[in-house]
Amino acid sequence: MDTLTMSRRTFVKTAAITGATVAAFGASTRTALADQTYSEVSGNDTVAVKTCCRGCGKMECGVKVIVQNGRAIRIEGDEGAYQSMGNCCTKSQSSIQAAYHPDRLHYPMKRTNPKGEEPGWQRITWDEAMETIISNFMEIKGKYGGESIACQVGTSRIWCMHSESILKNMLETPNNIEAWQICKGPRHFATTMVSQFAMSWMETITRPKVYVQWGGASELSNYDDSCRTTVDVASRADIHISCDPRMANMGKEADYWQHLRPGTDGALALAWTNVIIEKKLYDDLYVKKWTNAPFLVCEDIEPSGFPTVRTDGSYWDVKTHLLKESDVKEGGSPYKFLVYDNNWEKLKAQGIEHEYGPFTWFNADQEGVIDETGGFWEGENYDSEKARQGREAAQDNLLPGQTQGWLPDPMPFDPAIDPALEGEFEIELKDGKKHKVKPVWEHYKARAAEFKPEVAAEITGIPASEIEAAATAYGTRLDPSTGYGNGGIQYMLAVEHGCNAIQNCRAFDNLVGITGNMDTPGGNRGPTIVPIDGDLQGFSAWAPGASTPPAEVNQKQIGIEKFPLISWWQYWCDSHSLWTAVLTGDPYPVRALWNESGNFMSQSNSTTAWEALLSLDFFVDLNLWHTPQNDTADIILPVAHWIELNSPRASQGSAGAMGATVKCVQPPAEAKYDPEIVMDLARRMKWKWTDEPGNEWPDIQWQLDDSIKLLTDDELTYTTWHVENGVPTYERHGVPMAEVKPKYKTWDEYVEAFQKHGWWQAKDIEPRNWGTYRRYQTGAMRARDRVWARLDYTAGKGIGDWKPGWFTPTMKQEIWSTVMESHHPDRKDWWLPSWVEPPHGPKDGDRIKEYPLTATTGRRIPVYFHSEHRQLPWCRELWPVPRVEINPKTAAEYGIEQGDWVWIETEWGKIREVADLYYGVDEDVINLEHTWWYPEVQEAGHGFQFSQVNQLIDHDAQDPHSGTSNLRAYQVKIYKATPENSPFNNPVPCDSNGTPIIHTSDDPRLKEWLPVYEGRE
Fold first, then answer.
1. Contact 193, 817 (CB under 8 A)
2. Where among 499, 514, 529 does a domain terminate?
3. How many CB atoms are closer than 10 A to CB 366?
4. What is the structure's pLDDT at 55?
5. Exposure class string for 78-115: b at 16+ Cβ within 10 A, else e
6. Whole-angstrom distance, CA of residue 440 vs CA of residue 446
7. Residue 319 annotated among the catalytic residues of the structure
8. How far apart are CA 623 and CA 193, in angstroms?
9. Helices then strands, each counted (H, E), the chain
């Protein structure tokens, strides 16, 4: 056990493909696929199992796990996986070392020592563990209520994220901490407000002509498209624009580098918007027909509206200053939004008159509360099939065999109204008085003008001419004949790690929309839609038959008084507010926690969170490892690694791939799949998972079989609309859900087909849905039932209305957010996208004297994924310590040299990292690495306090809408760590005995982490 099974040279290069691919024949989900196929081979023959890598967490890279004698020996890229192009990064290859790591958790354990000390773990049975959990949870719930128990979950490996969500229902708690709150969540939150859930995802796989890479380095690690795919997209684009404070790996190859000050992304996005508007580079038809830009704003009326549906199906009341028929006449519809028609006189001459003279309306009564014209314009003529008329898309540089998709032609207004975007108009309202009204676009134009390039230059540090040039390059269509823009914007984590998180994302969503890049080839398309349960919602709170807590439970959610929009969103409680409640009992006690792969280090101030964890009465942690967080747990439960489990998988983003995570080897000892653990808990608590008699607690086999039952050769149910003179009729087509003939009756059959075929393209699976662009025009954008829609095979649930438009209160992409306006009626400045200076930044008064440098963080590291892989020898050998990037001129000023350990400090905490001199950051900026801990430190917390960056942040600095922690763009000071200012007279961090952490690549302790193949029974 003192040598590596694969050389470092092999590790850092892409592994050569060796080993024959053997298809699966009738594999059982209860055993590993390789075990089933191994009977076909002998000796040193190998089995290559096609599966989906989860080495980083978001990207669905197709890989092959090579299994020999029942043991996984390496991982290779799957060249047949078009969405990842054979990519197999360092994290993927290192997954072998993770699966067979000697420190893997194998059995349930209980604490024997007081919290704050080494836990003294003692092995127990699953029965004892579950009985202890239920007993403690029920005792705490009986004493304080279900809300006193919180749930926590980490990044979306999917199976932990969704199984955790159903536990909330089981315990009747509204409180859950999600990594989602600071990782893609703000983007999903914002786009659900103003367009459609997760429209932040961009279809880079079809290679846009202009590739805008904003606030991330996806060439290094996970993202919607990652590593090799990002490099390919950037290199093939006619223009590559990088927007990043740091010169990222691909940034040096970019045509434009928008070198902005950290935390000023929203200001730059609004500057781009100003350029697009002033140069009239926007898509006029899209803006007028599919956004609420022409809707009229009447500032001197009392806001009013109508009830509409939240993301979870419950109702809330829209209250808006947007002009509605109900404002014009008594008894008028609150759903009919008025616009001024520039063509009203021409139409009148043709015998077409509007009910309100020059004003016409759009009816957003999407549920037919008052009449059935909801979803259509006054007097509109519309036909679903005509809306689909078009041609095959014609993107350049697609991979051989990649499906282009169907591109409907832009559908003009019929009749030919021309909603005004500019001007001020007068209209008599039901109060008998004349009122001045302006289109939303006028207000939006004025907001963008506040950030014109000359102003934004002072904010961002980018010369105005460079801002204008990059915005013009993005907005000017390189090939106008396509009828759509140059591509979407791949905006990433940096834009949501601060106090402008939601407003930043709104600015990007609008910018993509007005330039004609929403749901177009290479544009922002949202999450891939397929008929399989690719998000495992059958394992979640959306499981068929799963009961939901009473409505009053959600009203107790911690943080909603401080963040009213979280009560609309409902998918997380604010982490800061929850840790505060644990420590103070305000607004009520929170005394217990259930965690599935979550991590207190990812958000909020880590020191505060650690203190809260130590004070809990009872804490259960499900994990692969001993981690800083489960050092505070009372019970830890072992879970399966991604090569040890089965799961349906579809692209989380817009890559459009459908496949599977396939169980390649058996999990060690008593480790279990997360959903199995939660299902067992439900059974023991007598909480019914489904409403199917005799199958209230289905096993994983049933869940997996159920997940693929709507994959069929038949065309699934869809609706076509025919509207004549504003009067709609509709027809249902396709096979009803309950009558679908599944293409594969079981999960095993599906896996067998996957091994033979490889990854499928969603465009081919559902050509009318994912295979078609401009779904807002054809109705397919509303083919599924709102957010997280899971098609229910038995009940036919989850089917949308197929009306054209978006899932917003106005059925338009909302430049003026009615959700924001309704929840913050006193904050007019928030109703449109806005930007403010980050707290504690360089403009924060006298702080800059003591803390002169601006800190950013969160960059991607090739061998790590957030807090993961620090105990994998290949990874740690290559990157043994956390690095802080500092400009060489700044380093010289502070007497810092390459490789020095340095202290970084704020008034909230201080940490140590190693100086990495790099001209790619400005002289007044440093770039810190995040979520560092040291597995080799065998003490409570595993040394997170040495280098964990979120100890530096202000616990109270948050986005006012989503609660996102302000993780970047705050001021710090830096100085060299010396023997005189370091514990144990050692600049290298040490445990309480003075033993240094692993800080060199030749540390012999790395060999202690080499894979162990024995003892997994």
1. yes
2. 514
3. 22
4. 87
5. bebbbbbbbbbbbbbbbbbbbbbbeebbbbbbbbeeeb
6. 10
7. no
8. 34
9. 31, 36
Q: Are residues 372 and 235 in the same domain?
A: no
- Can you spell out the DSSP letters for 98-122? HHT-TT---S-EE--S-TTS----E
Backbone phi and psi for residue 24, each to the nearest 5 degrees, phi listed first: -85, 140
Examine the domain organization and report whether 303 and 263 are in the same domain. Answer: no
- Of 46, 82, 41, nearest to 65 (Cα)? 46
Tell me how far apart the alpha carbons of residues 720 and 710 are, in angstroms, rounded to a whole number: 21
Q: Is residue 9 scored above 90 in pLDDT?
A: no
Same domain, 1005 and 861: yes
Q: What percent of the chain has pLDDT over 90?
A: 78
- Chain centroid offset of residue 886 CA: 30
- CA 43, distance to chain mean position in Å, is 44
Write the CA distances from 373 to 379, 458, 488, 730, 951, integer angstroms. Answer: 9, 49, 32, 12, 55
Tokens of 763: 């465009």
- Is the C-alpha dihedral spanning 256, 262, 263, 267 positive or negative? negative
Name the DSSP letter for residue 341: B
Interatomic CA distance for residues 627 and 935, integer angstroms:
7
Cβ proximity of 109 and 636 under 8 Å: yes
Q: How far apart are the first and last CA of the chain?
A: 19
Q: Is 29 inside a domain boundary?
A: no
Provide the mean pLDDT of the chain: 91
471-486 exposure pattern, b = at least 16 Cβ within 10 A, e = fewer? bebbbbbeeeebbbbb
Angle (CA) 945-949-955 rounded to 5° is 95
**Paired sense of beta strands 425-428 and 256-258, if any:** unpaired
Nearest Cα neighbor of 856 from 874, 869, 838 is 838
Tell me what pLDDT residue 222 has.
Answer: 61
Catalytic hit among 50, 58, 64, 91: 91
826, two tokens: 């006193």
What is the predicted pLDDT for the residue at 156? 59
CA pair distance 965, 272, nearest whole angstrom = 26
Q: Domains in the chain: how many in total? A: 3
Chain segment 769-798, per-residue pLDDT in tens: 999 999 999 999 998 765 444 555 444 456
Fill in the amino acid letter for 817. Answer: S
* Rounded distance between C-alpha atoms, residue 653 and residue 690, angstroms: 29
Neighbours of 855 (CB within 10 A): 26
Tell me which residue of 494, 495, 512, 493 sits closest to 199, measured CA to CA: 512
pLDDT tens-digit readout, 531-555: 888 766 666 665 656 667 777 888 8
Closest CA to 103 of 815, 890, 630, 688: 630
Cα 815 to Cα 513: distance, rounded to the nearest angstrom: 9
Gap between the Cα atoms of 751 and 388, Å rounded: 34
Domain assignment present for 756: no
Which residues have a Cβ under 8 Å from the Cβ of 743 and sit 6 or more positions away?
711, 712, 713
Element (H, E) at 553: helix 551-554
- 941-951 residues labelled b (16+ CB within 10 A) or e (exposed): bbbbbbbbbbb
Averaged pLDDT, 1001-1013: 96
Q: Which range marks the domain in which residue 257 is found?
A: 194-288+449-514
Answer whether 847's CB lies under 8 Å from 972's CB.
no
Q: What's the alpha-carbon Rg for the chain, to the nearest Å?
A: 28
509 and 422 share one domain? no
Query: What sections of 279-366 are H helices per DSSP?
Result: 284-290, 325-328, 344-349
1003 and 861 in a common domain: yes
**242 and 214 within one domain:** yes
Structure tokens, 65? 């796990």
- Residue 128 maps to a domain: no
Pick from 711, 697, 694, 698: nearest CA to 764: 711
Gap between the Cα atoms of 151 and 133, Å rounded: 13
